[in-house]
């Protein structure tokens, strides 16, 4: 038994040495990769990171290693760019090189590189260009995007009025309203708030968001092979994804049956027409990116992106106003002076409402819904500052720590505080900031940026035009600390009352 035990120990030592040597080789990168903490085999730097608050861990590492450094999430090498200057230099000055999309294991499992958000190369270029053109062309239907948002804002006001000043959680009504806006654009119509299919979509979306934010969901992105064999909520994502796909395919079938090639009603119609044009072109290609699979995935990309971040930002905004009633009162005064009570707010009002605009920007800054950004990748071996970042592969991507640009002391002196003055000059006029990048920047900037900006302004001003917010506790006792994760930030659940004005 002793010789066998000695042999086992010897083999274990050899395997450990090989693993350490392999890790050292990856970290050394021929001396060209950015520096970073020493990583352990298999688990990488996981023991040195707070998975529940990864942005804070990234901030602490940046203080030691500078704005460009390397970490390992499991075996996945991540080059982190931290700070506005580094992010801008990558996304703007070297936009072509940093325009790739990095791997995210959960997304890769469900999406497999289809659609807009997680695609690369020619597929991404064609589908993104088409989505941007289509969204910019609205009104190509009966109503412009602004009119759609104003219409949904009126439905939301009626729903809030029906709470009859009783306490309620704003999550559901805000999510329904924001989701209905993107639904009207991609599916051609809004849903009644009691529609069972719509409620199922929202329920599945919320369920997926919870899984992505959960500890097991985050661990899946670092150890996908292992997590595939471990039971847990992350396993429901495949089932939910299949349900979403079935729903969209049903809508596509309905659209095909009533399609008018000369009059597209929504995004699905526009995509179907594009598919028809490609198939009937002078040289139709069997490998066209305009196919049913990409139609389904693009529709879901727009639905998810158009449902989650804006509703979460609005929820954070209402909580902030409950905490600071003096800020709410100033917004009320500006709304009354510029808009009044007899008509709906419109986008033309925004230029005359600098304080409200500053409040919305500060809500976005402090919420910082996607603190780490969606992973970027380099499209080729890239020289960046004094280093070389290797071309994307299954094990390498670059992460932009966007949260750092929101907390720069020089630009936002009281960055830890909610202060609309961050976006106002000495005369009270609205002041833009290059450090404000909630929709990312460069070639991968959010396709729905314009829509989201309109939603935030029109929905928030319409709510405050009609209601005064009432907290259930003393404002000084309201906790505005966000629940943080690797994927996203969100306010803790809360309730409020709305009082008609």
Automatic annotation (TrEMBL):
Record's catalysed reaction(s): an organic molecule + reduced [NADPH--hemoprotein reductase] + O2 = an alcohol + oxidized [NADPH--hemoprotein reductase] + H2O + H(+)
Domain of life: Eukaryota
Record bears the keyword Iron: yes
Keyword Transmembrane helix attributed: yes
Keyword annotations from UniProtKB, A to Z: Endoplasmic reticulum, Heme, Iron, Membrane, Metal-binding, Microsome, Monooxygenase, Oxidoreductase, Transmembrane, Transmembrane helix
Enzyme Commission number(s): 1.14.14.1
GO-annotated cellular components: endoplasmic reticulum membrane
EC top class named in words: oxidoreductase
GO biological process: epoxygenase P450 pathway; xenobiotic metabolic process
MF terms (GO), sorted A to Z: arachidonate epoxygenase activity; heme binding; iron ion binding; oxidoreductase activity, acting on paired donors, with incorporation or reduction of molecular oxygen, reduced flavin or flavoprotein as one donor, and incorporation of one atom of oxygen
Residues engaged in binding heme: 446
Required co-factors: heme
Entries under InterPro entries matching the protein: Cyt_P450, Cyt_P450_CS, Cyt_P450_E_grp-I, Cyt_P450_sf, Cytochrome_P450_fam2
Family in the record: Belongs to the cytochrome P450 family.
Function field: Cytochromes P450 are a group of heme-thiolate monooxygenases. In liver microsomes, this enzyme is involved in an NADPH-dependent electron transport pathway. It oxidizes a variety of structurally unrelated compounds, including steroids, fatty acids, and xenobiotics.
Protein name (database record): unspecific monooxygenase
Gene source species: Chrysemys picta bellii
């Amino acid at each position: 038994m002793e010789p066998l035990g000695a042999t086992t120990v010897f083999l274990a030592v050899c395997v450990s040495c090989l693993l350490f040597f392999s890790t050292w080789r990856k970290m050394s990168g021929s001396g060209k990769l950015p520096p970073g903490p020493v990583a352990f085999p298999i688990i990488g730097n996981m023991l040195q990171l707070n998975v529940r608050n990864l942005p804070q861990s990234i901030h602490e590492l940046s203080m030691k290693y500078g704005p460009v450094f390397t970490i390992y999430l499991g075996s996945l090498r991540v080059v982190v760019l931290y700070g506005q200057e580094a992010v801008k230099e990558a996304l703007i000055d070297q936009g072509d090189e940093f325009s790739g999309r990095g791997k995210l294991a959960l997304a890769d499992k469900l999406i497999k590189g289809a659609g807009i958000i997680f695609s690369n190369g020619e597929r991404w270029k064609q589908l993104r260009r088409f989505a941007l053109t289509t969204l910019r062309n609205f009104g190509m239907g009966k109503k412009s995007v602004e009119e759609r948002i104003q219409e949904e804002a009126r439905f939301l006001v009626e729903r809030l009025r029906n709470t009859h000043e009783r306490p309620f959680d704003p999550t559901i009504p805000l999510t329904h309203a924001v989701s209905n806006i993107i639904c009207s654009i991609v599916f051609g119509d809004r849903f009644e708030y009691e529609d069972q299919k719509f409620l199922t979509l929202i329920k599945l979306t919320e369920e997926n968001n919870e899984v992505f934010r959960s500890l097991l969901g985050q661990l899946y992105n670092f150890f996908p092979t292992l997590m595939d064999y471990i039971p847990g909520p992350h396993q429901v994502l495949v089932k939910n994804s299949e349900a979403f796909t079935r729903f969209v395919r049903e809508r596509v079938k309905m659209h095909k049956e009533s399609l008018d090639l000369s009059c597209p009603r929504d995004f699905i119609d526009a995509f179907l027409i594009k598919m028809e044009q490609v198939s009937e072109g002078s040289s139709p290609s069997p490998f066209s990116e305009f196919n049913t699979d990409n139609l389904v995935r693009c529709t879901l990309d727009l639905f998810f992106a158009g449902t989650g971040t804006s509703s979460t930002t609005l929820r954070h905004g209402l909580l902030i106003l409950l905490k600071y009633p003096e800020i709410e009162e100033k917004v009320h005064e500006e709304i009354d002076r510029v808009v009044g009570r007899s008509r709906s707010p419109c986008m033309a009002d925004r230029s005359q409402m600098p304080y409200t605009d500053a409040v919305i920007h500060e809500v976005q800054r402090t919420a910082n819904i996607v603190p780490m950004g969606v992973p970027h990748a380099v499209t080729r071996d890239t020289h960046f500052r004094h280093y070389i970042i290797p071309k994307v592969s299954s094990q390498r991507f670059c992460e932009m720590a966007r949260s750092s640009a929101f907390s720069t002391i020089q630009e936002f002196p009281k960055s830890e505080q909610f202060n609309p003055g961050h976006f106002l000059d000495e005369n009270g006029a609205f002041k833009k900031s290059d450090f404000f990048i909630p929709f990312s920047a460069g070639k991968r900037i959010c396709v729905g940026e314009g829509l989201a900006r309109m939603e935030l302004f029109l929905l928030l001003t319409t709510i405050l035009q009609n209601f005064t917010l009432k907290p259930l506790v003393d404002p000084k006792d309201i906790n505005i600390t966000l629940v943080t994760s690797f994927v996203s930030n969100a306010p803790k659940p809360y309730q409020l009352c709305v009082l008609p004005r």
